[in-house]
């Protein structure tokens, strides 16, 4: 009987898992379900928000050579007992023998006022809507407040400030920007923000967003024309609603082969998986995590289909990439557990390395390679 593998989500991890499984299991039927008909370079969405054009990669072109069936639509339910998923664009459920859950992450908008008054760069539609608002506000020389001192907030603030030098850009964070970087990396951030005119407010925790201001935990407020919420990400609740065991953040709890601990025919990859190092420390939400996990999941599924025991996941990080506009950046070298080393690359060289890494990730995620005839 032909094994039917269904992958939901065509981001870096889902696309990599589908293509890897297609290569390893030429006789399997593989279906990829995604809300959009094209692959999104999510790590470039801050560039889209700043007004740059991003290339679209049609999934039909990527999947055709591999013989993978594409369904454009959103998965509404997963019936783990009947082993089928319902899709809003189909009249009948899609059955599966093996399910790969790769829905990624979404902006955490649980803070009061965020959903009503703040923009995000969590998805292409949100980034595009923000692009239009920023362009309008720049003509009015307004003020943009980016909340969040992580990589997403830093990249968004720098990109927008470089593109629109007449726009007031403020970065608000309850810690120091780039807290996960080395001192050399953080020092470079400060110099770049000074050069770009980005106002940085640290030790400022935003507890509520209003239409024209953000309210801080100390009771003070800061007026603004627009808020970009870039602090914290959540995950869709589909897995939890489907009875699959998840952690406190809603991510699927997996074993050391990325298989659900509650449903052995379900695998989770990317941001929606609570994957971890052998010592139990978690892997971070990032393209650098998602892409290798997707490829690994394809290998694991193929190994079990051939009656072999897969090797446990062994994962290590090498560096973090951070763009600061088009001609500056930080490449932070890290140890296997993503802890910063003192060594960094900065400036134009770092920007070129970051661009090469992003292009390489997209190439790896969408490469078809040589597939057996189907």
Automatic annotation (TrEMBL):
What is the annotated signal peptide range for this record?
A: none
Query: What cofactor is this protein dependent on?
Result: FAD
| Domain spans labelled FAD/NAD(P)-binding | 4-279
Under SUPFAM superfamilies, the record lists: FAD/NAD(P)-binding domain (SSF51905)
GO biological process, any: aerobic electron transport chain
Name the InterPro entries for this protein: FAD/NAD-bd_sf, FAD/NAD-binding_dom, NADH-Q_oxidoreductase
Keyword Transmembrane helix carried by entry: no
The protein's UniProt keywords, in alphabetical order, are: FAD, Flavoprotein, Oxidoreductase
Residue runs in coiled coils: none
> What's one GO MF term for it?
NAD(P)H dehydrogenase (quinone) activity
Similarity section: Belongs to the NADH dehydrogenase family.
Q: What is this protein called?
A: Oxidoreductase
Q: Species name for this entry?
A: Saccharomonospora viridis
């Amino acid at each position: 009987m032909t094994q039917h593998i269904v992958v939901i989500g065509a981001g870096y991890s889902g696309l990599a898992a589908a293509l890897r499984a297609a290569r390893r299991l030429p006789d399997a039927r593989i279906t990829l379900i995604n809300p959009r008909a094209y692959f999104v370079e999510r790590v470039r969405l801050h560039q889209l928000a700043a007004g740059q054009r991003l290339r679209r990669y049609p999934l039909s072109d990527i999947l055709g050579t591999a013989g993978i069936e594409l369904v454009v639509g959103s998965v509404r339910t997963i019936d783990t007992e009947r082993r089928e998923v319902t899709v809003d664009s189909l009249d009948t459920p899609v059955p599966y023998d093996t399910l790969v859950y790769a829905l990624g992450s979404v902006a955490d908008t649980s803070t009061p006022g965020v959903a009503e008054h703040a923009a995000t760069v969590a998805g292409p539609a949100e980034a595009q809507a923000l692009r239009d608002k920023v362009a309008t506000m720049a003509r009015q020389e307004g003020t943009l407040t980016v909340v969040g001192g992580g990589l997403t907030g830093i990249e968004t603030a720098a990109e927008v400030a470089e593109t629109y030098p007449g726009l007031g850009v403020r970065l608000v964070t309850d810690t120091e920007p780039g807290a996960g970087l080395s001192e050399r990396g953080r020092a470079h951030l400060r110099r770049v923000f000074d050069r770009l005119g980005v106002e940085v407010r640290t030790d400022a925790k935003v507890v509520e967003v209003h239409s024209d201001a953000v309210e801080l935990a100390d009771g003070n407020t800061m007026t603004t024309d627009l808020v970009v919420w870039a602090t914290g990400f959540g995950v869709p609740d589909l897995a939890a609603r489907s009875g699959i065991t998840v952690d406190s953040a809603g991510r699927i709890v997996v074993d050391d082969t990325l298989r659900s601990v509650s449903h052995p025919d379900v695998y989770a990859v990317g941001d929606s998986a609570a994957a971890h190092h052998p010592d139990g420390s978690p892997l971070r939400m990032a393209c650098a995590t998602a892409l290798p996990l997707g490829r690994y999941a394809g290998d694991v599924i193929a190994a079990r289909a051939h009656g072999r025991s897969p090797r446990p996941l062994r994962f290590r990080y090498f560096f973090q990439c951070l763009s600061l506009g088009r001609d500056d950046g930080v490449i932070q070298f890290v140890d296997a557990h993503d802890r910063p080393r003192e060594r960094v690359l900065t400036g134009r060289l770092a920007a070129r390395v970051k661009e090469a890494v992003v292009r390489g990730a997209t190439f790896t995620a969408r490469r078809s390679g040589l597939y057996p005839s189907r």
